[in-house]
Amino acid sequence: MTEDSWQRARRILAAAGLPPDRLARCRPLDGGTYNTVEELLLTDGTRHVLKVPPPRTAPGMRHEHELLVSEAEFYRSAATVDVPAPRVVATGDRHLLMTACPGQSWNGTLTPVEQTSLRAELGGLVARLHQVTGPGFGYPSGALGPLAPDWRTAFTTMYDAVLDDARRYRAWLPRPVDEVARTARAAYDALEEVTTPRLVHFDLWPGNILVDRPEGTPRIGGLIDGERMFWGDPLADFVSLALLGDIEDDTDFLTGYRKAGGRADFDTAARRRLALYRSYLYLIMLIETVPRAVGDDDVAWTRKVVAPQLVAALDDIGRHGARTSKG
Q1: Residue 195, CA atoms < 13 Å, CB-side half-sphere
Q2: Which Pfam families does the entry link to (predicted)?
Q3: How confident is the model at residue 309 (pLDDT cuts 50, 70, 90)?
Q4: Taking a C-beta distance cutoff of 8 angstroms, is the pair 141, 228 a contact?
Q5: Is the Cβ–Cβ distance between 185 and 80 less than 8 Å?
Q6: Which of 111, 116, 106, 122 minimizes the C-alpha distance to 252?
Q7: How far is it, in rounded angstroms, from Cα 238 to Cα 255?
Q8: What strands, in cross-sheet order, belong to the sheet with 88-92?
Q9: What pTM, to 2 d.p., does this model score?
Q10: Residue 225 burial (CB < 10 Å; 0-12/13-18/19+)?
Q11: Phi and psi angles of residue 315, each rounded to the nearest 5 degrees, phi first
């Protein structure tokens, strides 16, 4: 850890009302792909997490501006429905200081029985998140402008911004950008069925789900990295929850989700919206390899694994018909 990082951590602790001389350790955390993430260990054993964004001049996608504003919004909202997540300690122009959650990222060491129990628990937690409503639709960061009064306006703005990024960075896509845009537009009418802006994490892949074993039995210790959150259609969360797969195959999650009051009806309109959200996430995963200047192996993996998922999502948009009824 550099002296600059240590001094920055002490300065931020002091601004948050915490004695800087209680800082015992400051170390980088793995897993972050955009912000700098550090663990701050205090002399009393308390752990905090500090996030600092890249310089404003660093290349990035349009929706990535002011990500920490959205992340803080997610944690404050999660606290209102008692979902385990970091709690905001302090925010500043260029940082977010939060509590650390117990546990390790969800990994392959869990038994099938443990997986079943955890997926059901996760379903219940996500259903609670989806009870939280917002003041409008879109990214609370304001990266793409103010919140919109309707979901169609918000999501089409989000989608257009990603396609603009593809053009700006000349990103490789398995289909031409204009063709992707035409395909997506054919399904935009389905967005009009969403009338209430709800909390959407949009990045709930296993790496952002911490599993703890407080008494030997695994439980979810926290949902982290809420920087991609937006106010929108809760169905959108099912994309990362079944990353590169199909949420309808995850019966354990869906059982827990429905038991906790979540609505998961996969009619034609819902499947078309889900296809839109799948294409949105997979576009981001392909395009962001350019501004992040990832290595050749990562680029090859993304093109081999993610590109077919994007094509499948675009094909599904057309497969479910040109228009839907407004139920």
Answers
A1: 3
A2: APH (PF01636)
A3: very high
A4: no
A5: no
A6: 116
A7: 14
A8: 23-28, 36-42, 47-52, 95-99, 88-92
A9: 0.93
A10: buried
A11: -65, -35
Backbone angles phi, psi at 222, to 5 degrees: 175, 150
- For residue range 226-250, what is the model confidence (pLDDT) as tens digits? 999 999 999 999 999 999 999 999 9
Residue 120 has pLDDT above 60, yes or no: yes
Distance of CA 160 to the CA centre of its chain: 19
Rounded Cα–Cα distance for residues 214 and 128 (Å) = 22
Residue 326 has pLDDT above 60, yes or no: no
Residue 145 contacts by C-beta under 8 Å, 6 or more apart in sequence?
138, 157
Closest CA to 203 of 281, 148, 108, 267: 281
Q: From the CB of residue 290, how many other CB atoms can be counted at a distance below 10 Å?
A: 18
- C-alpha 53/C-alpha 143 separation (Å) is 14
